[in-house]
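Spend some time on this chain, tokens included, and walk me through the fold:

. . .
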Amino acid sequence: MSTTVSVDLGGTWLRIRRGDGIERLPSPSAIRQPGTSADDLLRQLVDTLDLHVPQGAAANISCGAALDEQNGVALGSGPLWGGAPTGEIPLLHILSSRRPDVRWRLVNDVTAGLASFALGFARPTDRHVAYLTISSGIASRTALLTERTIPVDHRGLQGEVGHLRASTSAPEAVRTLPCACGGIGHVSSISSGPAVQAVADVLDIRYDVDTFASSLAAGDRDSSRLLRTVVEPIAELIRTMITLDPRLDRIGIGGGVAEGLWEFYERELTGQLAETRSYADSLTPERVADIIHLCRPGDIDTLAGADAIADGFLRVTKL
């Protein structure tokens, strides 16, 4: 029986699990190595995986990139590769060419997160379940649990919401912040982990990631204003998701930003979602609590999610 290696490739960390042990390495990414070419970063990634995956193993990789999971082609990632190499990245082919002895399986990290969330938190009556990650990047996935499928478009994409234009009432200086993908004013430009500092700078708010939660706990007005600003595009996005899909019974929200600010993020998000602005609004605090699960650290295991996808728990299907 072959060894199974589970890998989580994010913009900040590369985690590799073999048996009961997990090794955490700095990711070869645009976040970690600004100014390094995308081709060099990709070469470092392949070299690292080659070094850590044993002969004849099965390697299930949760990859923080837009990805066509049926053919293993990456379509880009701001946190990993910035503007990304020109054109599509045949990541599965590159890995298989380097190490043909390994059975490689690539899944998008949000797909893996969704599988983990559905395994741990979906209820028997839930029909559609979504997972939204707010970390170095932002994206979502929705599964049709009645069919055990994750539908994607012809390119293999679903839920690349971090690169939609943000819906926000913030000043123009916030609305025009650049995104790591090269765009302007995206949800990730305002609400992702790296964006919080950028938003604080243009609002002239002192921000320290290590003391932000304690400032919120102390009732600091500037910190509360900063949190309100970075949560607003997420609240508007979730409001739209619920409005468009009446069968969306459960939404998990994870990632380092949301999990790190857990109680404060949940309170701010609930308050914004429960605002009544027209006859179409029906999100009371009680209904928000029934639909939204704000994940705590440890709730989501993308390594286990990648393994679950490889085992057929959910199937990615093109429409």
